[in-house]
Amino acid sequence: MGGGRRRAVAAQKFTTPEEMQALTERFGAHAGDLLLLAADSKAVVEPSLGALRLALAARLGIQRSGWSFAWVVDFPMFEYDQKEQRLKAQHHPFTKPRLERLEELRERPLELGTYAYDLVLNGVELGSGSLRISDPHLQEAVFTALGLGDEEIKAKFGFLVEAMDYGIPPHGGIGLGLDRTVMLMAGESSIREVIAFPKTQSGSCPLTDAPSRVPPEQLRELRIRTL
């Protein structure tokens, strides 16, 4: 009784009885059912509920069976970075956006989709790819929407932008993870279980003792100074 009352009080702290009743009716819940809700921005809610779903499946011993493939498409072109107060490319700035006019990059950037795609097997991403921008005018408009100046563009993407001056055809591709495929076939939950010499989570390698110290002469050659 005490635990149930505490849960009810916690729920009433954030919702009214009318809202609770509306939620119960909306989901068709009955006595003994459990509703798990999250309220925040989309960027917070989606990964939170996804992690909760996986945690509950593991705790309840729900086993995956069979092979369920899925294509994930129509990713957003941009996302808004609250910390930096600016737009960022969700995939990368060379992904081709879905639009009819260049002005849409200025008028409704957060509503634009892309020609990007992920291949998923049993909830695990096997690979991702996209169609790339081949029109220099479109590429320039995307950089403008991201608020990138000429110097920053040159520093970050100079060699790619220069390649456009020579003319590039429409193109796209996808990169598949063989290690993740083998992991699923072996019934493992980590790719480190199917890699001969896996790195640890910290990035170190037990086989080669990497990362190791860099000789001073190499640092001088690269004009790097450690502090």
Q: What would a concise description of this structure say?
A:
This protein has 227 residues and is α+β, with helices and mostly antiparallel strands. It contains 8 helices and 8 strands, in the order αααββββαβββααβαα. β2 (78-81) and β3 form a beta hairpin.
What would your notes on this structure say?
The chain is an alpha+beta fold and 227 residues long. It has helices spanning 2-14, 17-27, 42-60, 104-107, 136-145, 150-164, 178-185, 216-221; strands spanning 69-73, 78-81, 86-89, 97-98, 113-114, 116-121, 124-131, 172-176. It contains eight helices and eight strands. A hairpin with a 4-residue loop joins strand 2 (78-81) and strand 3. The model is unreliable at 5-9 (pLDDT under 50). The strands form three sheets. The protein has a four-stranded antiparallel sheet. The radius of gyration is 24 Å and the shape is extended.
List the helices and strands and how they pair.
Layout: H1 2-14, H2 17-27, H3 42-60, E1 69-73, E2 78-81, E3 86-89, E4 97-98, H4 104-107, E5 113-114, E6 116-121, E7 124-131, H5 136-145, H6 150-164, E8 172-176, H7 178-185, H8 216-221
Antiparallel strand pairs: 1-6, 2-3, 4-5, 6-7, 7-8
